[in-house]
Automatic annotation (TrEMBL):
<feature type="DNA-binding region" description="H-T-H motif">
    <location>
        <begin position="44"/>
        <end position="63"/>
    </location>
</feature>
<keyword id="KW-0804">Transcription</keyword>
<keyword id="KW-0805">Transcription regulation</keyword>
<keyword id="KW-0238">DNA-binding</keyword>
<dbReference type="InterPro" id="IPR050109">
    <property type="entry name" value="HTH-type_TetR-like_transc_reg"/>
</dbReference>
<keyword id="KW-0678">Repressor</keyword>
<dbReference type="InterPro" id="IPR009057">
    <property type="entry name" value="Homeodomain-like_sf"/>
</dbReference>
<dbReference type="InterPro" id="IPR039538">
    <property type="entry name" value="BetI_C"/>
</dbReference>
<feature type="domain" description="HTH tetR-type">
    <location>
        <begin position="21"/>
        <end position="81"/>
    </location>
</feature>
<dbReference type="GO" id="GO:0000976">
    <property type="term" value="F:transcription cis-regulatory region binding"/>
</dbReference>
<protein>
    <submittedName>
        <fullName>HTH-type transcriptional regulator TtgR</fullName>
    </submittedName>
</protein>
<dbReference type="Pfam" id="PF13977">
    <property type="entry name" value="TetR_C_6"/>
</dbReference>
<dbReference type="InterPro" id="IPR001647">
    <property type="entry name" value="HTH_TetR"/>
</dbReference>
<dbReference type="InterPro" id="IPR036271">
    <property type="entry name" value="Tet_transcr_reg_TetR-rel_C_sf"/>
</dbReference>
<dbReference type="Pfam" id="PF00440">
    <property type="entry name" value="TetR_N"/>
</dbReference>
<dbReference type="GO" id="GO:0003700">
    <property type="term" value="F:DNA-binding transcription factor activity"/>
</dbReference>
């Protein structure tokens, strides 16, 4: 008989590992469908397991906690969007926001899920949500800043705009507008994006402060 200490170091059979990965992905696929329709709603892991169609033990085994499940769902849905339609660098940040806005209208539940994760990140006792939000903001700022620099080089964005500051402003606009939309579908998203586009693309006039 293998002693406990030895058993802990035994490699997992490849077949079992592959089945585990496939099962986790199957649960995640179903969870994305559920959250896209209903959002997070801050319900329990047990209630979500029932709606997804798995046991509470299975959901806990693969994701650990409700917060970790929400993060996994959002990351997977975001990765699918990027894989499906990579966005060229010559697309300006405001054009990118319009694409995000149009896509978000189709998956209101995932927009609410993201907003809930960011809200949790600001509270004590949510290290996973804080790590997720902090890492995502830093990554998206860097990606948008690269997009700003590219469009500055082609003359589509003002040369006097600081790329990282513009990226932070774009993210603030995106998150703020989607929060307003969740609360009020009549919030002037298109007009706000048009104004942001104007601020970034028009050349600075004399005495006008830079963004």
């Amino acid at each position: 008989m293998v002693r406990m200490a030895e058993a802990e170091h035994q490699p997992t059979p490849r077949g079992s590992y592959a089945k585990g990965v496939a099962r986790r992905q199957e649960i995640l696929d179903r969870a994305i469908e559920v959250f896209a329709k209903r959002g997070s709603d801050r319900t329990s892991l047990r209630a979500i397991a029932e709606e997804v169609g798995v046991t509470h033990a299975a959901l806990t085994h693969y994701f650990g906690s409700l917060e970790e499940l929400l993060i996994a769902v959002y990351r997977e849905s975001e990765a699918r969007d990027e894989d499906w339609e990579p966005t060229p660098l010559d697309v300006t940040p405001t054009e990118l926001l319009r694409r995000w806005s149009d896509a978000n209208h189709e998956v209101q539940g995932l927009v609410q899920l993201y907003s809930s994760l960011v809200a949790s990140a600001l509270e004590e006792g949510h290290p996973a949500a804080r790590e997720f939000a902090t890492e995502r903001f830093a990554r998206v700022r860097a990606e948008i800043a690269d997009r700003v620099r590219h469009n500055q080089a082609t003359g589509r964005i003002r040369a006097d705009v600081d790329p990282m500051a513009a990226a932070a402003l774009v993210i603030a606009a995106s998150d703020g507008l989607q929060t307003q939309w969740l609360l009020d579908p009549d919030a002037p998203q298109d007009a706000a994006l048009a104004l942001l586009d104007q601020l970034l693309s028009e050349p600075a006039s004399a005495g006008r402060p830079t963004v």
